[in-house]
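Working notes for the structural subgroup meeting. M.R. asked for a predicted model of this chain before we commit to crystallization trials. I am recording the input and output together here so anyone reviewing the notebook later can reproduce the run.

Input as submitted:
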Amino acid sequence: MRSPTKDALAQNLPPLTPGTTRIVLVRHGRSTANDQQRYQGSSDEAVLTDQGWQQASLIGELLRNIPIDVVYSSPLRRARQTVEGLFAALQPATNRLDTAPAAVGVGALPSSTAVAVAPPRPAKIPQHIHPALREIHLPAWEGRLYREVRAQEAEAYRCWIQRPHEFQMASGGGVSYPVLDLYRHAQLFWREVLPRHQGQTLLVVGHGGTNHALISTALGLSPAQHHRLQQSHGGVSVLDYTHATGTAQLQLLNVTRHLGESLPKLKAGKQGVRVVLLPLAASQSLALVERACRRLDDSTIAYGLIQACSTTGNITQLMAQYLRHHRPDILQFPIQGDFSTRWCAALKQMKQAAGLTTALAIAPPATIHRLATTAIGLPIPGGLLNLMSGHLSLLHYPTGDHPPILQATNLD
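Returned structure, recorded in token form:
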């Protein structure tokens, strides 16, 4: 793994405006259960692997130039260890975790634990363990192998993927709705925590399901749209919440370059169609575009869909020339007129190929924004998803009936 570039995260974030709370969301590092390919849920048996500890350290390096006012963490060990590991890199001085009870007032949820840390950077950063950040509760699956669940409980697994809001599981002598409960806890967290931290930056260390629910509830995505946003181990996402309007904007999703990944790894299997989205504005620097494309050097791009229009004609023409020169094997489809119609036809064609097909879609920012928001179910128009011109974002359309997944946004 290579260390992140200095200011790699900060340089892709707009300034924090008055009346806004910035939330930096981190998924814990890789755990022992992850290596064993087992469901973890809200169980607390797994701990970080050596790779997980290394990921935590790299997260800390990435966040060194981000001003953090307060930290909230899941109570599960794999998340608390990630906090410990990232703080050791964030502030090289000794950081010791001490726990003491503290109520958080989230109704029937268990009481939280406040965590004190030796002075980092150089002032003390308050840390709080919050029970609402605990991972989704899957009592019937926890500890079982992924492949075992898929084979032995095919119908339940299909519901989990396709209709997560209807997914239910036997629990405590009754029946629970794990995804609905997860989203309820996420909403409780936002209602309690956000009013306390106007104008501040929060670091939230949680889990794949928890962070997904936090982002979704902040943007207005429902439990029915669960599984539409990827959260990789050690991945970093950033939300900005504006108190005056009560709305949030997703600035970055699932950044993993600090972990040595050019592009985030696919979670739903290496099948289907992965689309690299590149929005281009008329004033875009070709050098910036070339830098973005160099990030694709390890990827086999099979298709290139380029939309030229009056506002971006020059830059898209240059981009087409660049691709012909550097990637002559790409099948290019210049698009005039309605991008959506041509895109649907191209996607249908690409899905027929076996394995994984990767496409590069280059179009004006409004077109790329519409493509991404439609895929995950956000309203159009809307400014909830910030896709920066000249930066790469990733969509994955897995095979079968799995919904499309927004893997990452605004990769530099």
